TrEMBL record:
InterPro entries: EamA_dom, EmrE-like. SUPFAM superfamilies: Multidrug resistance efflux transporter EmrE (SSF103481). Belongs to the drug/metabolite transporter (DMT) superfamily. 10 TMS drug/metabolite exporter (DME) (TC 2.A.7.3) family. Residues 3-129, 142-268 form the EamA domain. It is found in: Membrane. The lineage of its organism: Bacteria, Pseudomonadati, Pseudomonadota, Alphaproteobacteria, Hyphomicrobiales. This is EamA domain-containing protein. It holds the Pfam family EamA. Keywords: Membrane, Transmembrane, Transmembrane helix. The chain crosses the membrane at residues 20-42, 63-80, 92-108, 113-131, 137-158, 170-190, 196-216, 223-247, 253-272. It comes from Devosia soli. Its main location: membrane. It is a multi-pass membrane protein. The keyword Membrane applies.
């Protein structure tokens, strides 16, 4: 769970980096450069065996599917970033943990405990409170973020399944090869010149995003998808912090109430899962 929290914290930093340049460069171009950086990192650490290990995987089809799902999720999510505040984007996107919990029960046959149901419910309610839904309209950017949440939830189920047999670096490498090829092709007609600042931000997004992806896959090997999805709520707090620090977005009082509920949900889940594991070890 600590790995999951670390991964989603890094994803929040990653999102803030991309939102900084999303008004300057097309989302597809940013994702292409970021994916190239991550592929290069995997090649450095995995060396020349990366392509052979990916090809030898029995989960090639599932890795391809997960790559396309996460690609669709990120393109929709960051495209909406032109119109929505970071806090709004993150809040809407956190419908994903609820979907992940439901899908994990259906497809992975994970046990739906009362603690997991309660944590997901409290966390989502906290997100709703923080979002102040009366201020939202069902616009195209909002729909894009909700569709991104659905795509991410399905990708999480794929990741949990793949993690049973493939290493984290193979998953990260395969996913970003798919992203690089797809985004490299799509971004050509929209390509814009980049200054040193834009290049630096794209490289930073690749470094932070690559590390976050690796840690997330490692955490998926250790905890159920339903638990990992609920841990995702903790990163909501960073969205409001970064929004205030970098874009002067001042949270309303409802944000603090919602954040408190989110933290409570995470602490409750961590305590119950820890107690459950201790009881299993005693047996």
């Amino acid at each position: 769970m600590a790995l999951g929290i670390s991964a989603y914290t890094l994803f929040s930093v990653h999102d803030a980096i991309i939102k900084t340049i999303i008004h300057v460069l097309p989302a597809v171009q940013i994702l292409f450069v970021r994916s190239i950086v991550i592929v290069c990192l995997c090649m450095i650490f995995g060396r020349s065996t990366m392509f052979a290990r990916l090809w030898a995987s029995s989960n090639r089809g599932m890795i391809l599917g997960r790559g396309l799902l996460t690609l669709a999720a990120w393109v929709m999510y960051y495209s909406a970033g032109r119109e929505l505040q970071l806090a709004e984007m993150t809040t809407l996107y956190y419908f994903a943990p609820v979907l992940t919990t439901v899908l994990a029960v259906i497809f992975l046959k994970e046990r739906l405990t009362l603690a997991r149901i309660g944590a997901a419910s409290i966390g989502f309610f906290g997100v709703v409170v923080a979002a102040d839904p009366t201020g939202f309209t069902l616009s195209l950017p909002v729909m894009l973020v909700l569709l991104a949440a659905l795509s991410w939830s399905i990708a999480m189920i794929f990741m949990r399944t793949i993690s049973r047999s493939d290493s984290a670096i193979v998953q990260v490498f395969g996913q970003n090869v798919i992203h690089a090829v797809a985004m490299g092709t799509v971004s050509l007609p929209f390509w814009q010149g980049m200054g040193i600042g834009e290049i630096a931000f794209c490289i930073a997004a690749g470094l932070v995003g690559g590390l976050a992806q690796f840690i997330l896959v490692e955490s998926a090997k250790l905890v159920p998808a339903s638990v990992l999805g609920t841990v995702e709520y903790g990163a909501l707090i960073w969205a409001f912090v970064f929004g205030f620090l970098f874009w002067n977005e001042v949270p309303m009082s409802n944000v603090y109430v919602g954040a408190a509920l989110v933290i409570a949900a995470g602490m409750m889940l961590a305590w119950t899962e820890h107690r459950s594991r201790r009881e299993q070890m005693r047996r």
